[in-house]
Amino acid sequence: MRINQLGPHTINRIAAGERPANVVKEIMENSLDADSNHIHITIVAGGLELIKIKDNGHGIHFRAFTFRSIYKDGKLTCKPTPCASNDGTTVIVQNLFPNTVQRRKSFTFPLEEYKRIQECVENYAMHHYQHGFTLKQVKILEHTKEDFSLKLLYSTIATNSSIEKAKSPIFITVVNNRLIGNAQIKKSLKKVYKDIDENYSPSFLYVSLHVRPDKLDANIHPTKIEVK
């Protein structure tokens, strides 16, 4: 059987909607570009059922490619409506990947997706330390016995992942106020520490770089997670 290569449109659509965390990242970046200093994120089922992001920015035109991809991969709500609320923008994305059943099935652990979102928000909060970020995960409990529901609720509240020891070094790399994941930069930084002390390995490292826009290509990947 002949194997046909996917077209650019399909490839870009798959890449841009890799995970719920990518959607959160793109919308947060738009909020920051709109001079927001308070961003509230609400997540249901690891972002697969609901992603709601509310900011207090002045509002800007969203990047067409990003939102076209989100629209095709889920139900997107983003329109101006008069209401009793503070200034800002609220974006709601529901039911990600409804038309790609296999893609939807690949996300078997919503908690894992939430942790990816949490990591993304924490990294941006570290870089934009003067801003306020709120991340809330809404858990829908099925109808069950009252005592079991209370135990489940309080055990969830008592859990604090922030005090757990990191299993691997944490590297936060920001280029021109955009969170990126560049393996070459991480490799270079590790080498610097190894040259200083061969036995020392940093558990946390944060680097913020400012590069002339004309010397930077941020369009090598649809999620903007890589730059060149």
UniProtKB/TrEMBL annotation:
GO terms for biological process: mismatch repair. GO terms for cellular component: MutLalpha complex. One of its GO terms (molecular function) is mismatched DNA binding. InterPro entries: DNA_mismatch_S5_2-like (IPR013507), HATPase_C_sf (IPR036890), MutL/Mlh/Pms-like (IPR038973), Ribosomal_Su5_D2-typ_SF (IPR020568). It comes from the Eukaryota. Belongs to the DNA mismatch repair MutL/HexB family. This is DNA mismatch repair protein S5 domain-containing protein. It comes from Rhizopus microsporus ATCC 52813.
